[in-house]
Give the backbone structure.
Amino acid sequence: MDGINKGLRKIEIAMRWDPSPAGQPSTDLDLVAATYRADDPYGDPAYVVHFDSRSPDGTIYLNRDSKDGQGFGFDEVMTLELDRLDARYARVVVGVIIQQRPAERTFVSVTNPGLRIREGYTVLAEDDFGGVLGATAATVAEFVRDGSGPWRFQPGLRGFEGDPVSFTRTMGAAHRP
């Protein structure tokens, strides 16, 4: 029955957190997605989508960006239209970065963080970052496919300690099976 399985199509990744306590610097978390080519799925990303960019073909984009966690519901939302992503791409790795200005932070200092990954109304994963409290960034999801086959979701929260630029360069290579 694999021939009728369309796999994952349109994914929403949503993140929330509460504003910093009064008198404390704002906390800014950012969703990032790195896309990898089928001919080098664990090499350098073909491109990275973050708060100031979108994918060249418009298939990965940030719907909502927050710099301080203020607002109701989810503060940052990214959409991945996997069904429209060109066949030359075989992997998309999604991560969360804590901006380190004006203060250095790890997930332990983020108030009430939450993550939800879903396709339509189906929740694929939820997390509160409790497993990576000492990290400055974390990968939260990986989407993979073989050739032109269907996209599959590989959940997993993996922490990273270091600066945001290093994270975007290594977020996909560091989790080789």
